[in-house]
Design brief:
3-stranded antiparallel beta sheet; about 15% strand
């Protein structure tokens, strides 16, 4: 597993795959999907059809220890 470095993080698009977000947290692909299915992924995720997507702003906020979503 490869954790993302700062250069990779800064080049991310507005929305990323669950696998990419998982890499930012140092999670394996399978564990990221397991957390998403259980509703326990470290930040807010979007379910679009059969796909999971993670807003990059949410990813950055969680990595910085901020909370953007009320009630979380």
């Amino acid at each position: 597993m490869n954790t993302m470095n700062l250069d990779e993080l800064s080049g991310l698009p507005t929305v990323v795959s669950l696998t990419t977000a998982g890499r930012a947290f140092g999670l394996s692909r399978s564990y990221a999907y397991e957390l998403a299915r259980r509703g326990e992924f470290p930040c807010r995720i979007l379910r679009i059809g059969g796909c999971y997507r993670v807003p990059t702003v949410e990813l950055f906020a969680t990595l910085r220890g901020e909370c953007l979503t009320s009630g979380r």
